[in-house]
């Protein structure tokens, strides 16, 4: 029986051409428009492997419709878009792409800098011919060097952000569900409670996955605990933030600004209240969008698929 792989986004042909000719590849025609669910349901019925992206909702109904399916290989480090419990019940392996995404730290730190130094506002002024002259406090923002960065989610990406922060001689504190003793030793990071992180950080950087514990954790009560000079940076998951509470905190000047690469509903639209605020820098979920990193992610997804369909263990399995 011929093996069949379903891929929910269009990938460059160079990645597909390395697969054995004996494998049937069904790949969606667009690299940015989602594969319609009805088409995915039709194609997955005879699929042995499914390569997904983080915006694909892979639930029990879809998994149950695929009796031959052995693996869902997710092109992301997060996997909250997949019902891992249902996959486990059906003996389907779920994999992700951890460790190769530390380039997200570059984007995160760039977002931190852009938010603090009001780069978005400055760019718009120049583009709209609104730059009139120099003045002492024209677009004056916040310093980054020697400040305190509080990292919520001290996985590989969080540790990479901490490493970059040390170059700015920042004090690094963090909160994580488990202490990272090696990171503390290597980076000089200090473990603190969530409440202390909120109270003392000049920059609160969220890199945590979406779980029952983290969902909506950044609400108005959390923002109230921050200093009015604090900047909130989120490059983790959008649903950890109650966005109407963030809008209120920014509008009320409870916090100084926000840099956001992720949102509750994506893509975010221009009429969204967050995008009406000058002290918000917004990006279209491009944390890992470097050519090298995306190449490694795709290769890892395909390698996991290859190993599982051949009866071997995957390189990066997701476990409950």
From TrEMBL:
**InterPro entries noted in UniProt:** D-isomer_2-hydroxyacid_DH, D-isomer_2_OHA_DH_cat_dom, D-isomer_DH_CS, D-isomer_DH_CS1, D-isomer_DH_NAD-bd, NAD(P)-bd_dom_sf
Its taxonomic path starts at: Bacteria, Bacillati, Bacillota, Bacilli, Bacillales
The record places domain D-isomer specific 2-hydroxyacid dehydrogenase catalytic at 5-318
Give the highest taxon in the source lineage.
Bacteria
Keyword Oxidoreductase tagged: yes
Its recorded name reads 2-ketogluconate reductase
Positions of the D-isomer specific 2-hydroxyacid dehydrogenase NAD-binding domain: 109-287
Please state which protein family the record places this protein in.
Belongs to the D-isomer specific 2-hydroxyacid dehydrogenase family.
What organism, scientifically named, is this protein from? Bacillus coahuilensis p1.1.43
Entry annotated with the keyword Oxidoreductase: yes
């Amino acid at each position: 029986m011929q093996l069949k792989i379903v891929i929910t986004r269009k990938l460059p042909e160079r990645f597909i051409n390395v697969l054995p000719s004996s494998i049937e590849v069904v790949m969606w025609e667009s690299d940015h428009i989602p594969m319609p669910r009805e088409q995915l349901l039709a194609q997955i019925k005879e699929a042995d492997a499914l390569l997904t992206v983080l915006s694909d909702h892979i639930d029990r109904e879809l998994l149950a419709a695929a009796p031959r399916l052995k693996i869902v290989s997710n092109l992301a480090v997060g996997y909250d878009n997949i019902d891992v419990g249902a996959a486990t019940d059906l003996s389907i392996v779920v994999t992700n792409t951890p460790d190769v995404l530390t380039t997200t730290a570059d984007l995160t730190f760039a977002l931190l800098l852009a938010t603090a130094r009001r780069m978005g506002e400055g760019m718009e002024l120049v583009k709209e011919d609104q730059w009139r002259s120099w003045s002492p406090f024209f677009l004056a923002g916040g310093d980054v060097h020697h400040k305190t960065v509080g990292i919520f989610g001290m996985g590989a990406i969080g540790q990479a952000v901490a490493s970059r922060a040390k170059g700015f001689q920042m004090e690094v504190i963090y909160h994580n569900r488990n202490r990272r003793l090696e990171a503390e030793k290597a980076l000089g990071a200090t473990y603190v409670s969530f409440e202390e992180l909120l109270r003392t950080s000049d920059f609160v950087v969220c890199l945590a996955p979406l779980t029952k514990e983290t969902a909506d954790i950044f609400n108005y009560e959390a923002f109230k605990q921050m200093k009015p000079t604090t900047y909130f940076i989120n490059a983790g998951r959008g649903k950890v933030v109650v966005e109407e509470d963030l809008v209120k905190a920014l509008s009320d000047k409870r916090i100084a600004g926000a840099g956001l690469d992720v949102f509750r509903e994506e893509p975010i639209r221009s009429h969204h209240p967050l995008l009406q605020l000058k002290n918000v820098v917004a990006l279209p979920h491009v944390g890992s969008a470097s050519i090298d990193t995306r190449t490694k992610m795709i290769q890892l997804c395909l390698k996991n698929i290859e190993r599982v369909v051949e009866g071997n263990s995957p390189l990066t399995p997701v476990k409950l």
